[in-house]
Amino acid sequence: MGVPLNLYASTNVNDCLNVLLTQGDLFMYKPLVPSAANAMDIANPYNLERVFHVCGANAATITKLMTTSGNQKIPDELYRSIQAHVKGSERVDDEVIFETIRSIWEHNKYPVSVYLHQSLSAVSLRFC
Questions:
Q1: Is there a domain that residue 71 lies in?
Q2: Which of 16, 32, 121, 127 has the fewest Cβ atoms nearer than 10 Å?
Q3: C-alpha distance from residue 27 to each of 30, 100, 109, 120 (Å)
Q4: How far apart are CA 54 and CA 73, in angstroms?
């Protein structure tokens, strides 16, 4: 059975994963926008094939989704399954990341990386 997990995703301005998780739209090969969290600057989410597989998609569906350019709606059943596994997603822009960096430093005198700040910013937006 395993350990129950609640998964939450955080993206920067390159928000193709957030759009997928919140709207069920998949944008493949969307133009990349440089951001402060540049390690997160991806046009296509890595390992999406595995997410689709875990959520019940068959090989033909996965192949079609991963090889079609542009915007496409993922099948409703697959979208519902993804929503059951991933509890939330937030898009965080550079301004919010930098504000979180300032806030954590001012309150805790603790420096953390811009990538951790992206996630902390998302948590702050969702729960604070």
A1: yes
A2: 127
A3: 6, 28, 39, 25
A4: 18
The domain that holds 18 is classified in CATH as 3.40.50.1100
Q: How does pLDDT run across 106-119, given as a tens digit for each residue?
A: 888 877 776 665 66
Residue 72 covered by a domain: yes
Distance CA 14, CA 16 (A): 6
Kindly state whether residue 2 falls inside one of the protein's structural domains. no
Domain span at residue 41 reads 8-127
Q: Which two tokens stand for residue 80?
A: 């519902």
Residue recorded with tokens 């979180």: 100
Number of domains in the chain: 1
| Cβ atoms 92, 12 nearer than 8 A | yes
- pLDDT for res 74: 93
- In sequence order, what E strands does 1-128 have? 7-11, 25-28, 70-73, 86-91
Question: How do beta strands 7-11 and 25-28 pair?
Answer: unpaired
Q: What is the full DSSP assignment across 69-83?
A: -EEEEPPHHHHHHHH
